[in-house]
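Backbones bend. Shown next:

***
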Amino acid sequence: MSLMYKVVYIDYNFVDERYPNTVHDGDKFFTYGFGSIYARKFRKYNPDILVECWKVDSRVKKIYEKEIENVKFIVFPSRKIGKFGHYSAVLIKYLKKFIKENPNVVFNISSIRHLLFYSVAIHLRNFPLVIQHHGEASALYKYKINKSIKNYFMHFKFLWSGMPSNSLMSFLY
């Protein structure tokens, strides 16, 4: 009996008037953004692996789900906290249940500089985690130059998990 693997891309709906992606814009609501592009491409070239794309959106009040191009899309309501980014208690609750029921999952999260990453990564210490940037500086460089509270939070995460904070490089790559 073979194991069923799953890859979950986690991203947020970017709000920009130039790129309509509200709930009223049909599939664009689910498919706009890097996470959804990568999820669909990965699924296309890996048809034996289940793929999901989870997004958060501060404009919605309930969960939206739709399957597009054999990818299950889920959009969760979130709260945008200034420059820190998005936080979604609904996504975290869903994630906790999901990881108990799905042990063979690789998670791919867009960018290390957003609250969304930190709020999710702390729950994934037993799962493979890919941090993907989109043409900007590398995740390690961003971590080194970041002097904000998120940097301290990351150190706390490693101490809490029993992993020394200086092993961040192996965690990121």
Q: What stands out?
A: DSSP finds seven helices and eight strands in the chain. The chain has a mean pLDDT of 81. The helical segments are 28-31, 34-45, 89-101, 115-121, 139-145, 149-161, 168-172. Strands lie at 6-12, 50-57, 64-68, 71-77, 79-81, 85-87, 105-110, 129-132.
